Amino acid sequence: MSNTYKQAGVDKEEGYQTVSKIKQAVAETHNDNVLNGIGSFGAFYQIGGYKNPVLVSGTDGVGTKLRIALDAKIYNTVGIDCFAMCANDILCHGAKPLFFLDYLACGKLDSDVAAQIVTGIANACKETGTALIGGETAEMPGMYQVGDYDVAGFCVGIVERDEIIDGSKIKEGQKIIALPSSGFHSNGFSLVRKIFTDMNEVFEGKPLYETLLVPTKLYQNDIFKLKDAGIEMTGIAHITGGGLIENVPRIMPEGLSAVIEKSKIQVPAIMKELAKRGAINEDEMFGTFNMGVGMVVIVDQNDAEKVLNLIENSAVIGEIKKGEEKIVLN
Predict the structure, then answer these.
(1) Phi and psi dihedrals of 307, rounded to 5?
(2) Which of 16, 124, 165, 289 is the most buried (most CB within 10 A)?
(3) What gap in Å lies between CA 179 and CA 177, rounded to an integer?
(4) Residue 114 CA to its chain's centroid (Å)
(5) What's the average model confidence in pLDDT over 54-60?
(6) Rounded distance between C-alpha atoms, residue 288 and residue 312, angstroms
(7) pLDDT for 95-121, tens place per residue?
(8) What is residue 226's three-state secondary structure?
(9) CA–CA separation, 118 vs 21, rounded Å?
(10) What is the tens place of the pLDDT at every residue in 221-234?
C-alpha cells in the first residue's frame, strides 16, 4: 500500500475548497489595474497616472493576538489586523496601498476558518481600495498544532517622489497630533495574555475577548483626508510594538525632540486595567503599547486646529523642540 500526501497530514482538497470560498471576496477587491485572477504563478498589477512614482512596501503579521482569536473561534477580525499592520506602515510615508498578498500557515487546514481569515483581509482591502492579488496557504503538520494558524502579509503602495513623507521637514514649533487607536491593535499581546488569563471574564459589559479582538484601525482615510485638505504632514509615525517611545524617534531629525505630555493622551480603560492588574509601571506601558495613540502626525502650528476639526477624537499631545533626545515624555 502506497503512502499519500493526505495520510501525511496535508489535504489538498481542503485547499481547493478554501480557494473556492474566498474567490468571490478576493475578486471584489480587484480593479482595472489587476491583469489576472487567482491561479497564476504571479500576480500582475499595472501602474499608471504617476509622474515619478516610488513604490513603498511593508510586511507584518498578527502576532499572538491570534491565540485569543483561535481560542474564541472568532476568525473574521484578525485578517483586518494583518492588513492594517502593513498598510498603516507604508502610509507613514504618504503611500497609498495598491495591492496586498497574504500568507496563511496552519497545522491542519479548515477551509471555513481560512476563508473567514482571508475574507477579513479582503474586507480591509475593499475599505481602502487595495487589491488582494495573491496569497499562499500552507498546511504544515508537525510544524503547527491542529487548530493553530499564523497570518502574515505584504503590502505595496505608491507615492510621487516629491510627496514622500520621511521626517526631513520636521521643524521646531510644529505640533504633534495623536490619532486615536481602536485598542491594543496587534502589539503587546504576549504581555496582555499573561495578565488577562480569563478571556471570558466580563469587562465593561462584554466578554474580555471581544474588547481585545477589536481590529487594528485603518488610517488611510484619515491621512488622505488631511492631504486632500492641503495640510502638509512633515512626519507620520505608526505606533506599533515599542509604543510612542520607540516609534516616534524613527521619524525625528537630529537635534530635534518630540516633547509629549502624557496628561493629554486619552488612555483606554482596558489599558489602565492591564497596568493595574499586572502592576506594570508607566514606562513599561508606554514602551510596549500604543496607549490609545494609533498614529502620530506632525504638522505646522497653523494647521493643528484644522486636523482636530477633520479627525474625530484627535488631540494635540506635544510639540517639536530642540534637543538631543528624540522623544521626551513628560
Answers:
(1) -60, -45
(2) 289
(3) 7
(4) 19
(5) 94
(6) 25
(7) 999 999 999 998 888 888 989 999 999
(8) helix
(9) 10
(10) 999 999 999 999 99
The answer, as to whether pTM is greater than 0.70, is yes
Label residue 266 by pLDDT band (50, 70, 90): very high
Phi/psi at 238 (5° precision): -85, 120
Query: Quick check: 278 and 229 in contact, CB under 8 A?
Result: no
User: What's the CA gap between 319 and 183, in Å, rounded?
Assistant: 24
Q: How many residues does the chain have?
A: 330
Q: What is the DSSP letter of 253?
A: P
The enclosing H or E element of 102 equals strand 96-106
CA–CA separation, 75 vs 89, rounded Å? 23
Measure the CA–CA gap between 235 and 252, rounded to whole angstroms.
8
> In a 3-state reduction of DSSP, which class is residue 250?
helix
Q: What would you report as the CA-atom Rg of the chain, rounded to the nearest whole angstrom? A: 21
Cβ-count burial 249-268 (b if 16+ within 10 Å, e if not): bebbeeebbbbbeeeebebb
Chain-centre distance of CA 273, in angstroms?
23
Cell numbers at 110, concatenated? 479548515
Please give the grid coordinates belonging to residue 225: 483626508
The pLDDT of residue 4? 56
Strands 149-160 and 293-299: unpaired
**Helix H or strand E segment including 224:** helix 220-228
Angle at 102 between CA 187 and CA 31, to 5 degrees: 120
